[in-house]
């Protein structure tokens, strides 16, 4: 068992640490205040050939592995959760369905521009009445001539405001068992009747793009089906397994950033004549934070490694996402506590990390859903 990063993975970590510190961190607080989307950051990442990192070079990707993807998400999230989730969603939710289920023609037409950073990737699954119960999808698609007519809505969709097209699910009929037949479709965002509404007021991740999608008689041709008719729900569950690795890495990154800020503050803050890092109660908090971050990182890397080996990783991805997200909330809570009153102030960053971390317990399946997935995978049902 080798825990050493490869030379390529180490190079990517160094590149992303430098990029995050030099290009992402300086404007993170101001973007959070003004809710400004960091488009220039992703333009620069496209120039570095990072937008399609884990996909084959033939599609414009970087030919790297899933561990490298997790490293990039972690390093970005360490300084800005909004940039981290934007990149994670682009790769694991936006690009992956085209790579996993698209025809060669669809990959050339849709995956290549995504990998080259010409547009951002988005993924339309969640609906107002179908969150954790994604099988309760109400958006529907009806055959019309040689194409399809789509009606419905999606909510909490990351990146859609900066996407030229996205994959989304719609009901196309009923199966023999009475359950809805769900199919995935490729929908251009400039299609007539397709509306993107960007007016959510969020707790955190202020500079990420989170939107509602409204489809009113949106017509698409028959070749815009992604994968097989009736297998959209299964395809998106497979996609979510990979997405959970991304959210796990994001949680690790946010926690790492909060921990580093707390450690630095503890060394500088003097009370009762000495730095508070000298007090055992603070030392134990920091020791627990460091330990739990390391455990979560190893879990994320294991799930990523299994995926790269072509082995089943559903259980490990859910475990990594669940543990890392709940760990991140605890670490950020303690980081605020170590800062005392200053931890409640925006300028000290840990309050931003705290707000941003909460989404990791919700996105790509809530903590409750992760426990259901794990229970199923260990044979409880």
From TrEMBL:
- Do you know which Gene3D superfamilies this protein is assigned to? Acyl-CoA dehydrogenase/oxidase, N-terminal domain, Butyryl-CoA Dehydrogenase, subunit A, domain 2, Butyryl-CoA Dehydrogenase, subunit A, domain 3
Record's keyword annotation contains Protease: no
What cofactor(s) does the depicted protein rely on? FAD
Q: Which domain of life does this protein belong to?
A: Bacteria
Which reactions does this protein catalyse?
A: a 2,3-saturated acyl-CoA + A = a 2,3-dehydroacyl-CoA + AH2
Q: Where is the Acyl-CoA dehydrogenase/oxidase N-terminal domain?
A: 6-118
Return the InterPro entries for the record.
Answer: Acyl-CoA_DH_CS, Acyl-CoA_Oxase/DH_mid-dom, Acyl-CoA_Oxase/DH_mid-dom_sf, AcylCo_DH-like_C, AcylCo_DH/oxidase_C, AcylCoA_DH/ox_N, AcylCoA_DH/ox_N_sf, AcylCoA_DH/oxidase_NM_dom_sf
GO MF assignments = acyl-CoA dehydrogenase activity; flavin adenine dinucleotide binding
Q: Which parts of the sequence belong to the Acyl-CoA oxidase/dehydrogenase middle domain? A: 122-218
What are the alphabetically sorted keywords of the record? FAD, Flavoprotein, Oxidoreductase
Give the Acyl-CoA dehydrogenase/oxidase C-terminal domain ranges. Answer: 230-378
Q: Which Pfam families match?
A: Acyl-CoA_dh_1 (PF00441), Acyl-CoA_dh_M (PF02770), Acyl-CoA_dh_N (PF02771)
Q: Which family does it belong to?
A: Belongs to the acyl-CoA dehydrogenase family.
PANTHER family linked: ACYL-COA DEHYDROGENASE (PTHR43884), ISOVALERYL-COA DEHYDROGENASE, MITOCHONDRIAL-RELATED (PTHR43884:SF12)
Q: What is this protein called?
A: Acyl-CoA dehydrogenase
The species this protein was found in = Melghirimyces algeriensis
């Amino acid at each position: 068992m080798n825990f050493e990063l490869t030379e390529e993975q180490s190079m990517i970590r160094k590149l992303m640490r430098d990029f995050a510190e030099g290009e992402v961190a300086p404007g993170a607080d101001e973007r959070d205040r003004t809710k400004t989307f960091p488009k220039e950051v992703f333009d620069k990442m496209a120039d570095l050939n990072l937008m399609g990192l884990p996909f084959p070079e033939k599609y414009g990707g970087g030919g790297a592995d899933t561990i490298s993807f997790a490293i990039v998400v972690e390093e970005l999230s360490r300084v800005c959760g909004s940039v981290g989730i934007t990149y994670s969603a682009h790769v694991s939710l936006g690009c992956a369905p085209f790579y996993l289920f698209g025809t060669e023609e669809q990959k050339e037409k849709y995956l290549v521009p995504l990998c080259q950073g010409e547009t951002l990737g988005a993924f339309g699954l969640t609906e107002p009445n179908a969150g954790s119960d994604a099988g309760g999808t109400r958006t529907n698609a009806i055959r019309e001539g040689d194409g399809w007519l789509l009606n419905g809505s999606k909510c909490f969709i990351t990146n859609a405001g900066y996407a030229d097209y996205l994959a989304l699910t719609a009901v196309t009929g009923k199966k023999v068992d009475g359950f809805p037949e769900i199919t995935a479709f490729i929908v251009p965002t400039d299609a007539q009747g397709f509306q993107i509404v960007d007016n959510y007021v969020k707790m955190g991740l202020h500079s990420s793009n989170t939107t509602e999608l409204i489809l009113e008689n949106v017509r698409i041709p028959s070749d815009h089906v992604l994968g097989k008719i009736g297998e959209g729900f299964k395809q998106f569950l497979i996609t979510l397994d990979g997405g959970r690795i991304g959210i796990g890495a994001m949680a690790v990154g946010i926690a790492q950033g909060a921990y580093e800020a707390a450690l630095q503050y503890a060394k500088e803050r003097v009370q009762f004549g000495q730095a508070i890092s000298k007090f055992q109660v603070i030392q134990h908090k920091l020791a627990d934070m460091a330990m739990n971050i390391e455990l979560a990182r190893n879990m994320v890397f294991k799930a990523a490694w299994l995926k790269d080996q072509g082995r089943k990783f559903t259980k490990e991805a859910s475990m990594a996402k669940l543990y890392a997200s709940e760990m991140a909330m605890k670490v950020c809570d303690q980081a605020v506590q170590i800062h005392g009153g200053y931890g409640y102030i925006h300028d000290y960053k840990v309050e931003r990390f705290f707000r941003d971390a909460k989404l990791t317990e919700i996105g790509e399946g809530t903590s409750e859903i992760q426990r259901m997935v794990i229970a199923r995978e260990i044979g409880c049902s």
